[in-house]
Amino acid sequence: MVERRKTRQIRVGDVPVGGSAPVVVQSMTSTKTRDVEATLEQINRLHRAGCEIVRVAVPHREDLEALEDVVKNSPIPVVADVHFAPSYAFLSMEKGAQGVRINPGNIGREEIVREIVEEAKAKGVAIRIGVNSGSLEGDLLEKYGYPCADALAESALRWSERFEKWGFTNYKVSIKGSDVLQNVRANLIFAERTDVPLHIGVTEAGMGRRGIVKSAVGIGVLLYMGIGDTVRVSLTEDPVVEVETAYDILRSLGLRSRGVELISCPTCGRIEVDLPKIVREVEEKLEGVDQSIRVAIMGCVVNAMGEAREADVGLACGRGFGWIFRKGVPLRKVREENMTQELLREIAELKEEGTKEE
Ligand code: SF4
């Protein structure tokens, strides 16, 4: 079991972050915020997929104007992503954003950052201090020569100390680079010195398999070390995939259990059925199920008994037939052509029982 780093708890709107709260899943919309309808449609899809905090970009005046409607109608807290223009941080808070993400390195002078902090304090808004290699302060670049992990961590620690000195504690920190090792090391240095909640992710991870693997490794290593209070998987994809991937990572470490965990064997020469087809069909049908269920689909009886015992529902295949299991108990023998249907029937019954128990 992963032992999580002890952090203080903060709140982004009504969502607790850090302390005893579960690792929170975040994402960011890819729509133009000024298109309120499209942005809310995407936020609602993200929410249904399990996203708990959403960030939106406010690069232009029109986006800021639209922010109020987005915040009012969003089912989850909205964080405004502010770069370069401090006035946008103030205006975002005025429009009701529950959080503001600033990158002090590109906001400018310390006094301006302090003014933003004072406003957040007065309005009960959370701040995320974002530190990344592209916007490191000049003196740190001079000291270290390039944006290495130590430089990133020092920048984050420096801003964190200032926030503490100004009496502001409702903030979290993110230190992100696109290099996995640098990312891990920088977060580790910061985590060892403070109890400030950390938002983790691998920035610009890319798309498809590469993006998912890079994110899973970068985020997974940190989570395994107990680091990370909120997570965003950054992919060049529909942001819903980011949320699904985040839950897959968290589920594989036993940190969140939302949705179906599908276990299937890799298949080998013992296989007598078209297992990939069955897995695909079941996966498709279970998309969007948010109940926590573990399903095992095994090609033969060799490993099936062990896996099926751990699973809520299982299928162990033989030649032209299979056994449906519940918690390791064989229930009935089914023909190959009915396997998917029978497995889904069993899962549906389990879901119904779960709903009744709730
Ligand atoms: S469960 Fe059976 S078919 Fe699947 S990989 Fe193992 S031995 Fe092969």
Automatic annotation (TrEMBL):
One of its GO terms (biological process) is terpenoid biosynthetic process. InterPro entries: Dihydropteroate_synth-like_sf, Enolase-like_C_sf, IspG_bac, IspG_bac-typ, IspG_C, IspG_TIM, NO2/SO3_Rdtase_4Fe4S_sf. GO terms for molecular function: 4 iron, 4 sulfur cluster binding; 4-hydroxy-3-methylbut-2-en-1-yl diphosphate synthase activity (ferredoxin); 4-hydroxy-3-methylbut-2-enyl-diphosphate synthase activity (flavodoxin); iron ion binding. SUPFAM superfamilies: Enolase C-terminal domain-like (SSF51604), Nitrite and sulphite reductase 4Fe-4S domain-like (SSF56014). It comes from the Bacteria. Residues 261-348 form the IspG C-terminal domain. Residues 7-246 form the IspG TIM-barrel domain. It catalyses: (2E)-4-hydroxy-3-methylbut-2-enyl diphosphate + oxidized [flavodoxin] + H2O + 2 H(+) = 2-C-methyl-D-erythritol 2,4-cyclic diphosphate + reduced [flavodoxin]. Keywords: 4Fe-4S, Iron, Iron-sulfur, Isoprene biosynthesis, Metal-binding, Oxidoreductase. Pfam families: GcpE, GcpE_C. Its cofactor is [4Fe-4S] cluster. Belongs to the IspG family. Converts 2C-methyl-D-erythritol 2,4-cyclodiphosphate (ME-2,4cPP) into 1-hydroxy-2-methyl-2-(E)-butenyl 4-diphosphate. This is 4-hydroxy-3-methylbut-2-en-1-yl diphosphate synthase (flavodoxin).
